Amino acid sequence: MIRERRSKGKLESYYHQFVHEGKMDPNVHPWVAESWQRSAANHIAYENMPSLTRLSKAELAERQQSHQTAIEYLQGLYQDVQEHFTRYNLSLLLLDHECYVLKSYAMPFFQKTPGEVAGARLTEEDIGTSSISIAYEHQVPFLLFGPEMWIEECQTGDAFSAPIILGGQTRYLLTLISAEREALPYSSVAALMLSMKYAMEKHLDMQAKLAACQAILDAVPLAVYHIEPGGEVTYANKLGEERLEAAGAPHKRPSLNEVVLNYRHTPLYRGFLGIPSYNKEVTWITPTKTYEDITTVVPLYGLDKEVDSVLAVSLPIEDLRNMVAHAVGYTARYSLASMVGEDEGFVSLKDKAARIARSGQAVLLQGEPGSGKQRLAHGIHQASPRAGGPLITLKCGDMPPEMLEDELFGVNISAEESRTGKLELANGGTLFLDEVEKLPLHTAARLAESLEHRRLTRIGEEVLRPIDVRIIAACDSDLKRLSEKGIFSESLYKLVSKSIIRMMPLRARKDDIPVLARHIVAEIAGQHRMTSKELAPEAAEFLMSYDWPGNVKQLQGVVEQAFFNTPGETIMPANINLPGNKSLAAATWKEDREVFIEAWKSAGGNISRLANMLNVSRVTLYRYLKKYGLEKE
Fold first, then answer.
1. TM spans, by residue (predicted)?
2. How many of the other CB atoms lie within 10 Å of CB of 139?
3. Which among 532, 521, 604 is positioned nearest to 560, based on CA atoms?
4. How far apart are CA 259 and CA 256, in angstroms?
5. Phi, psi of 192 (to 5 degrees)
6. How confident is the model over 149-172, as a mean pLDDT?
7. Quick one: average pLDDT of 249-271?
8. pTM attached to this predicted model
9. Which domains does the chain have, with CATH numbers?
């Protein structure tokens, strides 16, 4: 509040009348009167400056560091008007939102040295009425005449305080104090303070917005660059700086002409010709590494309507694959802990899987259909250092052999379109090859070569693309014997068989069936947000009486059906629809027609149910129906 000049003699009489007689003159400004009354009520000494609450040197230094932007900016403003401060013997203080003095400029406040006032707290509770306390309370600039200050020792001059308001809250206070009674040019002082207030608010608001923009740019998975003609990078966000550093950029503001070997063949060069590019797949060749990005380049025009710089935004294709993989659920759904059992052999198998998971080696899972190979693959990935990367699954028996190579390596469809394969999608993570024995020889050999050299080319392309993939392979048969017979690639077998885990059939650990069944019940209840159910002891015995040719997968289906068929809270034998109890321990459905027919009958001729029971795809089942001369009912 900018006030008209007042008679200091009258103001002194109002002050003494209140302090010594307790009477408040009606001519006292209402805000000043309220503050005097609070100061008196708080028993604040009015003759001399009391001992002030202050920060330690370390605390002050820390607080100054956190407010460095405001301190430095005000220092610049002060230097421009320093002569004015010296002429009128003025002091300038910068206080934070708690009214601690961050810095003193010009002449010392209260005739104290700057070292004494810096770090001191100047609230109404500390020094009584002041321009600081009134400006802070009412959030407006306020001119306070000397005789209106609570402490007599400080009444030699006038004071003007202005709050620096950001986001609707007082963040700082500017305070100008005259050390003498000489009349000040109040209009000039007010104009100066209001100008400094406005400038600081605009500057700090802009700095806050720029900091927010910088945080956003550093958080996004994009490399952002501002580039001037000649390729000089004037700005790069965090990822952009990391890319430049990895590419061997020689200094802080490098020229892409020096870093990008194919610079003249990129959209950047065309951008300076006024040609924008949007979401183009671009290869950046640097002395240390080749990058593949999805890049957008936007020309920026100057006042002369000529291109004076370009903005480039690049999304690394590797990061894009990881985002897509996570977005579509290419992550582990199961942990090793979800594989339950107390059998000594099974516990040993889990311990081995945990050790192998940490090693990073390729893994081969061998075992009968439905024995838990897929769940174990998920658990190994989740327990590995690659858990943050994608888990990509390719079921080799789900598609015709001639399509597997395109699906695995990707394919160049046309000059404008190229499709990513599962191997690239798994970059930085794990590729799970289910029914790996179904891979054609030439495809398996090509895969082994790509994994060995850690790079691939898509079908129909010559571009070498780096890969970093761990392989978990699963098969139902003896892969070593298949490779010895020349039916499976020997090179791929050597690669995936560095660690082998042989899955136990469920009939080999029958004592685990009740534990497994109860775990399945708990999982179903959790997935469907339903109350869990008990498995009666006689129901557990009933489940143990069966040989489970479809292993855990088949048990899963039977228990799930029992869960939903049980009206009460306890699953009884009557609620369990157990398949025919003929022992199939000595044979497997892929090799024995009778075993397949038995399983087919158990599933009631339902393809989906049989696929669930045997943990295979419908495509595979159709192939075996044809092989055994059976028709789908």
1. none
2. 12
3. 521
4. 5
5. -60, -50
6. 91
7. 80
8. 0.53
9. 8-211 (3.30.450.40), 220-317 (3.30.450.20), 329-504 (3.40.50.300), 517-628 (no CATH)
